[in-house]
Design goal:
alpha/beta; D-Amino Acid Oxidase, Chain A, domain 2; 3 domains; six-stranded mixed β-sheet; five-stranded antiparallel β-sheet; L-2-hydroxyglutarate oxidase LhgO; FAD; (S)-2-hydroxyglutarate dehydrogenase activity
């Protein structure tokens, strides 16, 4: 019997993790990863904050909750095996008033239902012991929340893929997907072609468009939101010891500005969330008329914007005003000033948005014949990547 052939579209952490998992279970399979950029981890994976999410927020029983907890375990094992940094710096969710304290209790219950270890609510005095420069009326402490370098994790897994006989083809932009007997043909922008019996699409910011090539439906649509960060100056990095996060407000679609140490020693302040003017646009000067037309023409975006336009205006003001941006973080770290930060990295989040105007919250995976597509994989997808790979490969084999 000839080996099964697989094509995985997307060279971010999810695509490489899935290729690795296939080869773990089927060492003789022919696996090819297709990435349109000249390098792996070029977009969301390479612009990730590096947080290993413990599973505090997610609805118990959801794919996010289950795969996040499993993913943490697998990720820690992989980092140990490859000698990659894995720093359990811990995290505090800080409540600023009594309303937020009430929401904090709800998150604590959800975290415990998800099996997050060591979480507990603390008062302002103990918060000061953990984070001397942080102020709040209460906090949820997650001591095992960690940070890693997800691009480094992706490269390590890619080495495993190639060592096991898999192929990784960069600069291969898939522009066509069509059936050809018992196989599927994936054609590239430069005339290349790959044939495979099973196809997995992990196209991130292009997820809906690549899925459409295989005949999948247009709902949900990817809407790109850019997140901008500032970095603490080296002499001010001691303002935080671990991750400092706000309590999520269910009225708003995004989390808000927080402080995030990285394994390279930097400390990020952010992000905001502004509509990106291109799917792979990391600044205001990066504009794609096609991408904007797709966003504005999507009924779901118009419904979303009608509900959240005030938040959108606030986020845009933070983008152009450093004082306003830093002011959001100063509520938690009162000593922080605009002079303490310099411009930092930017990323673009691929957020699936339904035709009803609602953000798709959970991971979403669809199947169209031999083609399986990850249609929505926002945070904590990087944390969950190895568990998502297990889940996807189980679906392929089932």
């Amino acid at each position: 019997m000839s080996p099964t052939t697989y094509a995985v579209v997307g060279g971010g952490i999810l695509g490489v993790a899935i290729a690795r998992r296939i080869l773990q279970l089927q060492p003789h399979a022919e696996v090819t990863v297709l990435e349109k950029e000249p390098r792996l981890a070029a977009h969301q994976t390479g612009h990730n904050s590096g947080v290993v999410h413990a599973g505090l927020y997610y609805v118990p029983g959801s794919l996010k909750a289950r795969l996040c907890r499993r993913g943490v375990h697998l990720l820690q094992e992989l980092c140990t095996e490859h000698g990659l940094a894995y720093d359990e710096c811990g995290k505090v969710l800080v409540a600023l008033d009594e309303d937020e304290r009430t929401r904090l209790s709800d998150i604590t219950e959800r975290a415990r239902a998800n099996g997050v270890p060591g979480v507990r609510e603390i008062g302002p005095d103990e918060l000061r012991e953990i984070e001397p420069h942080v102020t709040g009326v209460a906090a949820l402490h997650s001591p095992h929340t960690a940070i890693v370098d997800y691009a480094a994790v992706t490269r390590a897994m890619a080495q495993e893929v190639t060592a096991a006989g898999g192929r990784i083809r960069t600069s291969f932009e898939v522009t066509g997907i069509r059936p050809d007997g018992e196989r599927t043909v994936l054609t590239g922008a430069e005339g290349q072609a790959v044939r495979a019996e099973q196809v997995v699409l992990c196209a991130g910011l292009q997820a809906d468009r690549v899925a459409a090539l295989a005949g999948d439906e247009e709902d949900p649509r990817i809407v790109p939101f850019r997140g901008e960060y500032h970095l603490l100056r080296p002499e001010r990095r001691d303002l935080v010891r671990g991750l400092v996060y706000p309590v999520p407000d269910p009225r708003y679609p995004f989390l808000g500005v927080h402080l995030t140490p990285r394994v390279d020693g930097e400390v990020m302040v952010g992000p905001n969330a502004v509509l990106a003017l291109a799917r792979e646009g990391y600044g205001w000067s990066h504009v794609s008329a096609t991408d904007l037309r797709d966003v504005i023409g999507w009924p779901g975006f118009r419904r979303f914007a009608a509900r959240h336009w005030r938040t959108g205006v606030s986020e845009m003001l933070g983008s152009v005003s450093r004082e306003r941006f830093v002011g959001a973080a100063r509520r938690y770290v009162p000593e922080l000033t605009s002079d303490d930060v310099v411009p930092g990295p930017r990323g673009v989040r691929a957020q699936a948005l339904g035709v009803d105007g609602a953000l798709v919250d959970d991971f979403r995976i669809t199947r169209h014949g031999p083609v399986l597509a990850l249609r929505n994989a926002p945070s904590p997808a990087a944390t969950s990547s190895l568990a998502i790979a297990e889940h996807v490969v189980d679906l392929l084999r089932g």
